[in-house]
């Protein structure tokens, strides 16, 4: 059914408040990309199968393609554009560059947001557990080794937030 | 004060920061005023005619601007050849919305254009359709009797047909000491780059378009659009600085480009068309293929008879060809050979080059047959490769320009610990799991095509290098910058590589592992020409310190022209610019292999692959625990990005062998798993210890840089190495891919 009524919602994205009027059928991913022009968050499937659209909502990693924007009214959202501290890259971002943890770069924002969320969850201790808990983020280029190496370096260096 | 060379250094990707901060923009991400969104409707039948396509209701929805179908499609080019692209196989190119004829399941049949993506997608569901269906065939297996030779065309230049038979295969095979034969199958595979195909068209005024396209060739897309829509080449600009993976899928202009341009021209608006994941399975794939091998060897292990036949799927409108059966005799110098390649036309879309096309298919069959021969001869599989080692490509009777495969075998085996292998199948165990070691050889062509490059130096001593080439994640931008830095004697920071824009000098499509060997030498040549220009200007400077010198007598370093055997004597670039009135100095050069010389030698990259698998027979789990790939690919410009290329290829090999397959329901002629949940590719947990070795290889023949290319070689040896390891672990020869646990039962 075609929704007719727009809803007024507020999203706090990367410390900026956005007031938007939105139809309820619009996903958070599409709001970020098409309305707010924050295209760093990627769409790889739109069905919760690839992880490219991972963002942090109130600190937790979620799939923005499986989330309707209206569900997140009032939430604080961090996208890849808000991960660095100004000019200073986040340690995970630095480690990704250093370990060549990407080729085409399309899965990268999702991998990075997911890694930050995963480290914060504090469940993964070993490399194997990190691999397991990062397995929702696909990389077709096959940058897997670099991605896990980068995350392990930050995890073991203890410099994540 | 000569600066250290950049070539050979593991430089981090120059665009890294853009990629980790989300600032890299891909085709479907460019903003445009009052942008319209297109959503494509695809046919749900496999063959037949559209009898009704009623868009009345859909058009009444708020925000729907227009719906294009075959009934109201604006007119486009008449002739078939106008639709042909740089990678078009012999045949007739598919033309979207041409008429009511349905040629394959998922064929695009309409484009809904609306103010929002959601509305376009919703309106698509309101289109009323009726078809008459016709009988179709999509099953390769049940149509093998229709196999026929392939038509030849332009594409046959890069994809030569199999070599003619040599000797007497039948007799040699019958009389050989041991014989090994096999039948090998793999199903359909789809590229599935993470970024879905998208095109954003900016309507810049009458017949003038700026197009952001997902492509592996900006000029390929530009040419296609200009030809199909009757526009001037100069009025069509195609830009693709970031491509979210392609693996061959971007070698041909895909239908979202056609759709977006058509709508933009008709509506005089900015339009974006993005495909969804299911639609990513509607325009090209690795063709399912059946192969047959028969190899015969003498008692000492020498292979004397090779038969290799491949039958691949193609569409009813194009003869897609890949090189499947040409490899065995390039590696193993048997005197008696019979090599054949045929296709079966079916009611599917044309197959499309997919990473290591043909090579990964053929080497799978060849290297499993070799492994089987080794067991029958009671010779170590590695030893058998060395017994059959050849410095020559027997099939063309040419010497290799370079071939360090022997060292790949030796260094790879050492790193892997091949000597710890007990050859007996099922003899090695770890806990309750069977352990298997397998190895295989990899080979891929080293080609070079024509490219043009422009180099522009400005008065600040900085240089811009321009090429239309893309960087699909291969590291091209970084590598080209390294090459330019060394040739110009400048720092990386002084060089900007401007690329992926059809307005820039010509580069071919990016594929086939030939980009670095094609554009690299062109960059080098343009930089050299720029140096020569600077030198000529320097000679005419008033102080005339260089007037007696020849170009060979000087070097270029950090903004100075320095006399080689008298480094105190030098001229700064700044002086040259001062005398030049500050005007930029530029040059554009064409670079290609010498046609008289280039064909005189065989050119290939090689690899040796060693794999350890663990098989849990009770749970039916197969895991690649370790793999070592040793590669000889000439000069490695950037070991970091090159290693990533090989690792990516190895993971593709694991995927091809153990995970991915598009499954067709032949009752409906339809792919059943067009999504990333059911089309399995390896996840992080599937990837364990992978190692890459680059073996020294000096090649002064292939090109000035001595580079070959690393895009495909990482894939080719993996599938047979894994299958051979599974045989070693379990004693089961499994020739069909992918190997899922049911095949172990
Ligand atoms: S786009 Fe959300 S999981 Fe793939
Ligand atoms: S870097 Fe290309 S998909 Fe991961």
From TrEMBL, chain A:
<dbReference type="InterPro" id="IPR006058">
    <property type="entry name" value="2Fe2S_fd_BS"/>
</dbReference>
<dbReference type="Pfam" id="PF01799">
    <property type="entry name" value="Fer2_2"/>
</dbReference>
<keyword id="KW-0411">Iron-sulfur</keyword>
<dbReference type="GO" id="GO:0016903">
    <property type="term" value="F:oxidoreductase activity, acting on the aldehyde or oxo group of donors"/>
</dbReference>
<dbReference type="InterPro" id="IPR036884">
    <property type="entry name" value="2Fe-2S-bd_dom_sf"/>
</dbReference>
<dbReference type="InterPro" id="IPR001041">
    <property type="entry name" value="2Fe-2S_ferredoxin-type"/>
</dbReference>
<keyword id="KW-0001">2Fe-2S</keyword>
<keyword id="KW-0560">Oxidoreductase</keyword>
<feature type="domain" description="2Fe-2S ferredoxin-type">
    <location>
        <begin position="7"/>
        <end position="83"/>
    </location>
</feature>
<dbReference type="InterPro" id="IPR052914">
    <property type="entry name" value="Aldehyde_Oxdr_Iron-Sulfur"/>
</dbReference>
<dbReference type="Pfam" id="PF00111">
    <property type="entry name" value="Fer2"/>
</dbReference>
<dbReference type="InterPro" id="IPR036010">
    <property type="entry name" value="2Fe-2S_ferredoxin-like_sf"/>
</dbReference>
<keyword id="KW-0479">Metal-binding</keyword>
<dbReference type="InterPro" id="IPR012675">
    <property type="entry name" value="Beta-grasp_dom_sf"/>
</dbReference>
<dbReference type="GO" id="GO:0046872">
    <property type="term" value="F:metal ion binding"/>
</dbReference>
<protein>
    <submittedName>
        <fullName>(2Fe-2S)-binding domain protein</fullName>
    </submittedName>
</protein>
<dbReference type="InterPro" id="IPR002888">
    <property type="entry name" value="2Fe-2S-bd"/>
</dbReference>
<keyword id="KW-0408">Iron</keyword>
<dbReference type="GO" id="GO:0051537">
    <property type="term" value="F:2 iron, 2 sulfur cluster binding"/>
</dbReference>
From TrEMBL, chain B:
<dbReference type="InterPro" id="IPR036856">
    <property type="entry name" value="Ald_Oxase/Xan_DH_a/b_sf"/>
</dbReference>
<dbReference type="InterPro" id="IPR037165">
    <property type="entry name" value="AldOxase/xan_DH_Mopterin-bd_sf"/>
</dbReference>
<dbReference type="InterPro" id="IPR046867">
    <property type="entry name" value="AldOxase/xan_DH_MoCoBD2"/>
</dbReference>
<dbReference type="InterPro" id="IPR016208">
    <property type="entry name" value="Ald_Oxase/xanthine_DH-like"/>
</dbReference>
<dbReference type="GO" id="GO:0016491">
    <property type="term" value="F:oxidoreductase activity"/>
</dbReference>
<feature type="domain" description="Aldehyde oxidase/xanthine dehydrogenase a/b hammerhead">
    <location>
        <begin position="21"/>
        <end position="135"/>
    </location>
</feature>
<dbReference type="Pfam" id="PF20256">
    <property type="entry name" value="MoCoBD_2"/>
</dbReference>
<protein>
    <submittedName>
        <fullName>Hydroxylase large subunit</fullName>
    </submittedName>
</protein>
<dbReference type="GO" id="GO:0005506">
    <property type="term" value="F:iron ion binding"/>
</dbReference>
<dbReference type="InterPro" id="IPR008274">
    <property type="entry name" value="AldOxase/xan_DH_MoCoBD1"/>
</dbReference>
<dbReference type="Pfam" id="PF02738">
    <property type="entry name" value="MoCoBD_1"/>
</dbReference>
<dbReference type="Pfam" id="PF01315">
    <property type="entry name" value="Ald_Xan_dh_C"/>
</dbReference>
<dbReference type="InterPro" id="IPR000674">
    <property type="entry name" value="Ald_Oxase/Xan_DH_a/b"/>
</dbReference>
């Amino acid at each position: 059914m075609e929704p007719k009524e727009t809803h007024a919602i507020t999203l706090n994205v990367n410390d900026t408040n956005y007031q938007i009027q939105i139809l309820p059928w619009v996903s958070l991913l599409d709001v970020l990309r098409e309305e707010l022009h924050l295209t760093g968050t990627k769409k790889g499937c739109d069905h919760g199968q690839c992880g490219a659209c991972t963002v942090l909502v109130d600190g937790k990693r979620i799939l923005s393609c499986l989330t309707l924007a209206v569900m997140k009214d009032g939430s604080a959202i961090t996208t890849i554009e808000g991960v660095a501290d100004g000019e200073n890259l986040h340690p995970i971002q630095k480690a990704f560059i250093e370990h060549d943890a990407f080729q085409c770069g399309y899965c990268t924002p999702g991998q990075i947001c997911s890694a930050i969320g995963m480290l914060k969850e504090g469940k993964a201790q070993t490399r194997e557990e990190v691999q397991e808990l990062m397995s929702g983020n696909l990389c077709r280029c096959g940058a897997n080794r670099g991605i896990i190496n980068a995350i392990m370096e930050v995890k073991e260096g203890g410099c994540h937030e | 004060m000569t600066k250290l060379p950049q070539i050979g250094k593991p430089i981090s990707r120059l665009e890294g920061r853009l990629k980790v901060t989300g600032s890299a923009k891909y085709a479907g991400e460019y903003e445009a005023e009052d942008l319209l969104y297109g959503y494509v409707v695809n046919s749900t039948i496999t063959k037949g005619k559209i009898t009704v396509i009623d868009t009345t209701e859909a058009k009444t929805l708020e925000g729907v601007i227009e719906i294009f179908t075959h009934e109201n499609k604006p007119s486009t080019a008449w002739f078939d050849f106008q639709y042909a692209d740089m990678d078009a196989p012999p045949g007739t190119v598919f033309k979207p919305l041409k008429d009511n004829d349905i040629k394959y399941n998922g064929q695009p049949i309409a484009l809904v254009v609306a103010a929002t993506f959601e509305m376009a997608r919703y309106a698509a569901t309101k289109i009323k359709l009726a078809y008459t269906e016709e009988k179709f065939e999509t099953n390769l297996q049940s149509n093998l009797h229709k196999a026929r030779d392939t038509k030849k065309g332009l594409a046959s230049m890069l994809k030569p047909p199999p070599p003619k038979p040599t000797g007497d295969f039948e007799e040699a095979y019958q009389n050989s000491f041991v014989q090994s034969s096999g039948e090998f199958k793999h199903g359909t595979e789809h590229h599935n780059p993470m970024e879905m195909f998208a095109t954003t068209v900016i309507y810049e005024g009458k017949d003038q378009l700026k197009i952001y396209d997902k492509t592996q060739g900006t000029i390929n897309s530009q040419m296609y659009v200009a030809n199909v829509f009757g526009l001037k080449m100069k009025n069509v600009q195609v830009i693709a600085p970031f491509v979210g993976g392609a693996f061959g899928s971007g070698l041909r202009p895909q239908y979202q480009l056609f759709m977006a341009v058509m709508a933009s021209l008709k509506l005089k608006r900015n339009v974006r068309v993005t495909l969804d994941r299911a639609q990513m399975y509607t325009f090209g794939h690795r063709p399912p293929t059946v192969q047959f091998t028969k190899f015969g060897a003498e008692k000492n292990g020498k292979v004397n008879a090779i038969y290799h036949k491949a039958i691949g799927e193609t569409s009813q409108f194009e003869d897609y060809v890949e090189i499947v059966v040409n490899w065995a005799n390039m590696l193993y110098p048997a005197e008696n050979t019979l090599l054949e390649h045929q296709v079966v036309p079916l009611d599917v879309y044309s197959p499309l080059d997919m990473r290591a096309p043909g090579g990964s298919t053929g080497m799978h069959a060849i290297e499993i047959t070799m492994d089987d021969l080794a067991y029958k001869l009671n010779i170590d599989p590695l030893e058998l490769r060395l017994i059959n080692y050849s410095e020559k490509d027997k099939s063309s009777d040419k010497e290799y320009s370079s071939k360090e495969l022997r060292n790949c075998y030796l260094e790879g085996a050492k790193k892997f610990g091949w000597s710890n292998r007990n050859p007996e199948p099922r003899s090695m165990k770890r806990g309750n799991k069977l352990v298997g070691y397998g190895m295989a050889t990899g080979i891929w062509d080293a080609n070079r095509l024509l490219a043009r490059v422009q180099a522009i130096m400005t008065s600040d001593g900085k240089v811009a290098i321009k090429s239309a080439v893309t960087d699909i994640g291969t590291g091209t931008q970084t590598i080209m910058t390294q090459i330019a830095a060394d040739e110009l004697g400048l720092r990386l920071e002084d060089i900007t590589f401007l690329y992926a824009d059809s307005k820039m000098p010509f580069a071919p499509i990016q594929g086939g592992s030939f980009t670095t060997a094609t554009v690299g030498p062109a960059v080098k040549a343009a930089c050299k020409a720029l140096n020569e220009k600077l030198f000529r200007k320097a000679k005419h400077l008033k102080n005339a310190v260089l007037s007696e010198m020849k170009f060979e007598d000087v070097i270029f370093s950090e903004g100075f022209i320095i006399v080689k055997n008298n480094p105190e004597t030098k001229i700064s670039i700044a002086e040259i610019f001062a005398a030049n009135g500050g005007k930029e100095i530029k040059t554009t050069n064409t670079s290609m292999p010498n046609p008289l010389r280039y064909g005189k030698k065989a050119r290939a990259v090689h690899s040796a692959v060693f794999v350890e698998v663990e098989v849990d027979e009770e749970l039916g789990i197969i895991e690649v625990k370790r793999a070592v790939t040793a590669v000889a690919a000439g000069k490695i410009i950037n070991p970091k990005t090159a290693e990533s290329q090989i690792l990516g290829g190895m993971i593709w090999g694991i995927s091809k062998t153990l995970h991915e397959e598009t499954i067709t329901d032949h009752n409906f002629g339809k792919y059943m798993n067009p999504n990333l949940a059911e089309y399995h590719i390896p996840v992080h947990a599937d990837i364990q210890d992978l190692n890459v070795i680059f073996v020294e290889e000096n090649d002064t023949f292939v090109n000035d840089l001595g580079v070959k290319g690393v895009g495909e070689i990482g894939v080719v040896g993996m599938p047979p190495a894994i299958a051979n390891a599974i045989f070693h672990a379990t004693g089961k020869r499994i020739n069909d891919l992918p190997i899922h646990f049911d095949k172990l039962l």
